[in-house]
Amino acid sequence: MELNELLLRRGIDPSRVVVFRHRPTEPELNKIFPLLAADRPDLFNAYQRAHSERIEKVLLSASHVASFIRYGSGKALFIAAYGIGKPRPLTQQQFWRIPANAELKKLGMRGFVSGRRSCLWFDLKPLDFYSEWKGKLIVDWPPPERSWWRRAHRNRMSIHAVLEDSALDTAMQKWNELDLTWSQLSILPKRWQAKLAEWRGIYYIFDSSDAKGYVGSAYGSENLLGRWRNYGASGHGGNRLLRQRDPTNFRFTILELVSPTMPPEEVQWLESNWKERLHTRQPYGLNDN
User: Fold this and answer.
1) What is the largest CA-CA distance in the chain?
2) pTM
3) Which residues partner with 140 through β-bridges?
4) DSSP string spanning 4-16?
5) Which of 169, 161, 143, 152 is nearest to 74 (CA)?
6) Residue 15: Cβ within 10 Å count
7) Which domain holds residue 208?
8) Fewer CB within 10 A of the terminal residue: the chain, N end or C end?
9) Which pLDDT score, from 0 to 100, does residue 114 have?
C-alpha cells in the first residue's frame, strides 16, 4: 500500500497534494522539532505556513498538505494532513508579530529567506485524516534525501510500517541527564511534565554568557515543574540577579532529588550546601543569599 491510496480512500486527489518531510535547518530547532510535532500542533503548523517563493507557487496550485517529519534515512513519520485555505501576504514585521512565530524564533527559527520583504501566510486547516496514526505511520521517502517536499502523485511512498505506539512519545530522560534551555521549558512533552511535577529537589541554572550559576530548590506546588514553569514565563523566577540577564542563555539541570516528604527546612539546608560547594553566591555566582 502507498500514501496515494490512503489519500484516494479519503476522497483526496493526490495530484493536488503536497507532501512535506520537515527537517529544520536550524540545529536547535531541529533537535526539538519532534516535541513540537507531539505536543505543540500550533507551533508545528505555524512553522509550515510560510515558505520560499518557489514553494508558495506549488502550494497555490494545491488543495492539501500531508505533513511528515524525518524518521531516519529514507523514512518519514506522519504528523497530520491539512486543507489549504486562502493565503494572505505578510511583511517581515507582521510575520514576527504573530505569537507562534515569535515563540519559534526563541526556539531557533530564522524565518524569512534573506532579502525577502514579504511572504504568503497560508491558512492550513488540520483534517481528521488518519489522525489515529499520528506518530505511528512510517512511509518510504524516495531519493534524493535532501529534497524535503514532493508532489504526491509523482512519487511512490510505500507504507513501511504502522507502529503500535507513537514514535513521538519520547521517553523521559534520567533526572541527572536533563539539560534544558530556557526556551525548551515551554514545550516539554506531557509525560516529562508529569515527572517533573512529582520530583522535588535542588536545581542549577547555568548562564552560558559568562559561566555563572544559580542554585535553587523546588518543594512547593508541582515541585520542579511549577518552579521551572515560573522561569519559563518570567525568565527570572523573581530572582533579583537573574532579572538583569538574558534568559535565552540559561540552561536548567537537576543537582539532587529529595524525598517528597522531606521537611522544607531540610531542603533549604541542602540548597545552601550546594551554593557553598558550587560557589554560586555573590560575587562569584548569581545567588544573592
Assistant:
1) 67
2) 0.83
3) 75
4) HHHHHHTT--GGG
5) 143
6) 14
7) 175-278
8) C
9) 60
93 plus 125 within the same structural domain: yes
CATH of the domain at 193: 3.40.1440.10
Question: How many Å apart are CA 210 and CA 33, to the nearest integer?
Answer: 28
Report CA-CA distances (Å) from 287 to 228, 272, 273, 284: 17, 10, 13, 9
The pLDDT of residue 254: 97
Residue 288 covered by a domain: no
Cell triple for 103: 515563540
**283 belongs to a structural domain:** no
Cell numbers placing 5: 491510496
Task: Compute mean pLDDT per 10 residues along the chain, 289 residues long, and list them.
Answer: 96 97 93 91 96 95 98 96 97 94 91 79 96 97 93 96 91 87 88 92 97 94 92 91 94 95 93 97 94
Angstrom CA distances, 172 to 32, 35, 42, 175, 191, stand at: 14, 12, 23, 8, 7
In angstroms, the CA 185 to CA 172 distance is 14
- Cβ–Cβ under 8 Å, residues 3 and 152: yes
189 plus 134 within the same structural domain = no
